[in-house]
Amino acid sequence: MTATVRKQRVVGWLVAAVGICAVLTVGLLIRAGSNSSDAPRDLMGSEALAAALAPDGSLAIEAGTTDVIVVIGCTVRKDRMSVYGHDRETTPFLEALAAKAVRFEHAFAQAPWTRPSMGAWLTGRWPRAHQLDNPKPVRLSNRALPPDATTLAERLESQGYRTIGVVANPNLNTRFGFAQGFEVYDEPDKLWREELDTVAGTDIVRSFMDAVDDTPEGQPIYGRLVFVDTHAPRSPSKKFRRRFGMAQATRKGRRLASYDASMLQLDQLLADLFVGMHERGRNVLFVFAADHGEGLNVPRRHGVGHGNHLYPSTTAVPWIMHHPALPDPGRSIEGLAMGVDLHPTLLELLGLEAQPDLDGQSLADTVLGEDAHTGREFAYAETFFRKSHKSAIYGEEHYLIRDHALPSDDTSFTDKLFATTDWKARNDQRTKAPDAYARLADALDAWESSMETVQAAAGAPLEIDPRESTMKQLKALGYVD
Ligand SMILES: [Zn+2]
């Protein structure tokens, strides 16, 4: 090869490389733009927000007149929220809301990924009761919430509520059984395995508000909204990216800055939703929680995403409840709470009877200020995500994570005990705190064997073929009209 030819080739490669970069950059800009075309209203410090948060003694919580809005932030990591102590201001609206609301300080999701955790939040039953997560061999990615599960939407629909579901996470699509009980259900067109893209939170709020505006006069509303703004791939709008200095950050810093910016974006969407309901004169019991957090490689052993681990980075979750009639606003509720507790808690607050077979317990007394402490001794979670099998028990002073050997016919496991203050799970405390270890290990043994009973009673898992061609089957099964 002559020097000239070599030079031409180098120039050719450079031109091609620049071209590819340009295409990628344009692609990324288009992609970022798809989620940022219209940022939520800037309501912080506004009269509209102050009016929406003002106490109103004329309103009561009762079935038939109180709207129930359950908002789940998918992949919301609690320690990245300023309302739970993060030093960057990522959740100014939730801070303002919490000052007028009650919040659980120690709530845990029952699984570190969407479907089993959401099944628990919405039905009050363990994930295994619906076979949404359990030992193989059925592919977890095809598990669906069975038609005999009783969801909050079904309970409230039977009370005359207009039930409106708007979800940005395709794991909750109709085909997976999560539209049960909804009159209106807006869901992504494609699964993430088909198209890795996310639905913008602004579209979730707009779609929900449109359905609210279509609701007949006087009819109460149950809304369930699920946002994925903090779920990868994140593309917070420029306004929020700038706030956290994303352009100047290092690679690791950029991931965290992008996450924090997405959290702020979600927070501002919640403000928009909350104020929007108040502007429409609705009497709302507003709930914000998360189905799980995110590892973010902080620290590295927690992994970057979620599903495989049970560290508090993915299982400790926010849970905030607001209604103008709740006594002593600004309260923090001590004691442990779980996702399975939401369903019975909401029913009792509304004056409705919960089904007798629930695994969660009503925490209505603590929400109403009659009890200061939930009285729960432990919270539990487990996962069978991809190639993991782990279980965990969370107490007031320690938590224990059990890593089971694979394949599942091998019954050996490794335990690690951590102080609850050690949320990064750095120092195994088994030898330093043998009594605590024995107590938590015994309780986890008992819970794990109870899960086998729950699973045996549940029968065969419902596995669906998630391709479009199976929609007929889903119709036949009663999932879709
Ligand atoms: Zn999720």
Question: Please, could you describe this protein's structure?
Answer:
The chain is an alpha/beta fold. It contains 13 helices and 13 strands. The chain has helices at residues 3-36, 47-53, 92-98, 114-123, 152-157, 201-213, 238-243, 251-279, 312-315, 342-349, 364-367, 434-458, 471-477; strands at residues 67-73, 102-108, 162-167, 184-186, 221-227, 284-290, 316-317, 319-322, 331-338, 379-383, 390-394, 398-404, 413-419. The strands form 2 sheets. Strands 1, 2, 3, 4, 5, 6, 7, 8 and 9 form a 9-stranded mixed beta sheet that branches. It has a 4-stranded antiparallel beta sheet with strand order 10-11-12-13, with helices on one face. Strand 10 (379-383) and strand 11 form a beta hairpin. Helix 2 packs across helix 8 and helix 6 packs parallel to helix 8 (251-279). It is globular. Zinc ion binds next to loops.
